[in-house]
Amino acid sequence: MAADYRKIQDESVRLLDADDYEHAEPLARQALTLAQKLFGKTHAEVADCTHNLAVLHRARGENAKALAMFERALALEEALGEPRREDLARTLGDIANLIVRSQKFERARPIAERAAIAMKACGVCDHDLAFALNDAALCAYQAGDMEAARTASEEAIAVFERNGAHTDATEATELLVKVNARTGCDAFDRGDIATASKVFGEALVLAETLGESIELVNALVNVSAAAAAEEDVERAASTAQRAVDLGRKLGVDDVLANALYRRACAHALAGEDAQAIPLAERAIEMYRRHKETARLIFAMRLLGDSQNEIEATRDACRTFVEMRKIVRRHFGDDSLDLTVVEEQLAHCYSDLEDDRAGALYRRVLAARERLAPASEDLAFALNNLALWLSDIEGSEDEATALAKRAIDVATEALGPQGDTTAECWDTFARTRVATEDFAGADDAFMRAFEIREESGDARETVEEAVDALGDNLHRCPRVEAYVRRHEVGSTS
Fold first, then answer.
1. Sorting pLDDT into bands at 50, 70 and 90, what band is 415?
2. CB 264, CB 306: distance < 8 Å
3. Chain-wide mean pLDDT for the chain?
4. Nearest-angstrom CA–CA distance, 394 and 384
5. 448 within 8 A of 479, measured Cβ to Cβ
6. Beta strand ranges found along 241-355 (DSSP E)
7. Which of 32, 128, 395, 429 is least enclosed by beta carbons within 10 angstroms?
8. For 422-448, how does the pLDDT look when each residue is reduced to its tens digit (9 = 90+)?
9. Per-residue DSSP letter, 393
């Protein structure tokens, strides 16, 4: 019987290695039955036969059956102890990999990590270790543990390369690119642009090794975003254009949409809003088709802002009206996102001297009071409504009160200096002009001058003063003298 067992076992292994699963399975089952009869149910031969059946089920895509058999093999190997340490380590890797395939990453992670530790302890340094490390990296990535994911991923790549498994190393590199991308995005979202730029750059270097790939497009898009945040116009444009060119070549819509959006952003950053508009419109079309609502909203905001910049205000209104409907549908009436859109739409209506601006500015102010009290955003909301009312006859007192409060909120939130505080003083000065309190206007504009001089550029207040005062510039003598010194033309 022992000779029969050995012959059957060897033949089942030969057929399994030849991928002849149909003929291998009955022999593998027969070998397991014989092994249990010959050696008892906890013998090493039984563990081997059980493991072979698990491999066979896995090869046929029968993952549930394979997992059950691998777990039986593991129990046997654990009972057998020291002589089966290496087999146990490899079986742990097999189990982790199957659980990863079912996307149960939380369950798989400790098993994959245990497998990698056990293999290293046994001196294993082949593809089984690399796969265990890569599975551990993927689980850590899914759990948001980017540091652990990076460490395991880098080690997996090194083991794959050392064993000549270059295809598997490429797949592991794709994961490492994603790890770096998410790390960079996390830094970007918390405002740490320097770290984001560094990590995105590292991801780009890795992605370049993958050739013309989706990962490379995404890496270029991220580098462009960081460059734009750093106001590096040239790098933002060049990396975005590379992303667009490669995205078009690959023909993957959602990837191309992101590239088009970033290229549009780079045009807008460079003051090339006319060139930004068609790219933003194309990105919007793609985002709409793929139902990517968050990205659709970003692209629509860029489109509306660019339309405003080229003074296509009615087009901008239509964009923001549509955007408002989408935001309201997806985020509700009490969301900060809706407030941001309504503020943009109010600015458009204001530019068109449309009375709907006032109602929207009031809605925005009410929302800011509720959602962002004592903040710069509240100061802006107060200032915007005050500025709108300052040109409406009979609303001067309300405008004055709002402008004063805007100054108080800005000062409390940001301190007495800063551009926002200066802007609030500009608006307060306008309310003084509206009531012909030119002494008050003189004082307020001079306060704004002082604040902006701290940053080395008072031109904005100079222009505000000239526009607000017009023929009455001479009635604010200190402002007039300041304007003359800065050689700004005016009517006196």
1. confident
2. yes
3. 93
4. 17
5. no
6. none
7. 395
8. 999 999 999 999 999 999 999 999 999
9. T
Judge contact between 427 and 421, C-beta under 8 A. Answer: no
For 64-88, the pLDDT digits (tens) are: 999 999 999 999 999 988 778 999 9
Rounded CA gap, 159 and 125, in Å? 7
Decide: 445 and 479 in contact? Cβ < 8 Å. Answer: yes
Q: Give residue 106's Cα distance to chain centre.
A: 23
Rounded to whole angstroms, how far apart are CA atoms 302 and 268?
8
CA distance 296 to 430: 38
Q: What does the alpha-carbon distance between residue 81 and residue 75 come to, in Å, rounded to a whole number?
A: 10
Torsion sign, CA atoms 234, 235, 240, 245: positive
CA-nearest of 59, 56, 126 to 89 is 126
Q: What is the mean pLDDT of residues 108-125?
A: 93
Q: Which residue in this structure is represented by tokens 């307060």?
A: 428
Report pLDDT digits (tens) over 15-28: 988 999 999 999 99
For the record, the structure tokens of 391 come out as 């040109």
Rounded to whole angstroms, the Cα distance separating 47 from 65 reads 16
